[in-house]
């Protein structure tokens, strides 16, 4: 996941994920890589900085359990579009 190098980081080197779109796509990518829901959640909590809104809506409300790897268009065009949208959400 080399694209993560384009995301901002906090002082403690955690990658910033402050919107639900980015969280959902990142979580789905981890599932696609073969992680279980629990493993993907642990990875995100250990390596990413989430804001309260994302934490509440995606984790506390257990919405992450409904995410699947199939929710992402893994064609080249779909991947580029997703990465572009993730980058734009970070910049705003």
Describe the oligomeric state of these chains in a short phrase: single chain
Number of E-type strands: 2
H-E string: EHHEHH
Instruction: Give the overall silhouette.
Output: globular
- Spatial arrangement of strands, main beta sheet: 1-2
How many whole angstroms does the radius of gyration measure?
Answer: 12 Å
Largest sheet: 2 strands, parallel
What is the rounded distance between the termini? 21 Å
Give the number of helices.
4
What is the percentage of strand-forming residues? 5-15%
> Helical residue percent?
40-55%
Q: What descriptive keywords fit this protein?
A:
single chain; 92 residues; mainly alpha; 7% strand
Secondary structure layout:
Blueprint: E1 15-17, H1 20-32, H2 37-47, E2 48-50, H3 52-60, H4 76-91
Parallel strand pairs: 1-2
Characterization of this structure:
By secondary structure, the chain is mostly helical. It is built from four helices and two strands, in the order E-H-H-E-H-H. The radius of gyration is 12 Å and the shape is globular. The mean pLDDT is 81.
Quickly describe the structure.
This protein is mostly helical and 92 residues long.
């Amino acid at each position: 996941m080399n694209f993560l190098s384009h995301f901002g980081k906090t002082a403690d080197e955690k990658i910033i994920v402050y919107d639900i779109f980015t969280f959902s796509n990142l979580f789905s990518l981890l599932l696609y890589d073969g992680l279980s829901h629990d493993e993907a959640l642990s990875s995100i909590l250990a390596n990413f900085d989430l804001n309260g809104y994302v934490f509440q809506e995606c984790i506390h409300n257990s919405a992450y359990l409904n995410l699947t790897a199939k929710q992402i268009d893994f064609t080249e065009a779909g991947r580029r579009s997703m990465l572009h949208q993730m980058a734009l959400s970070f910049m705003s």
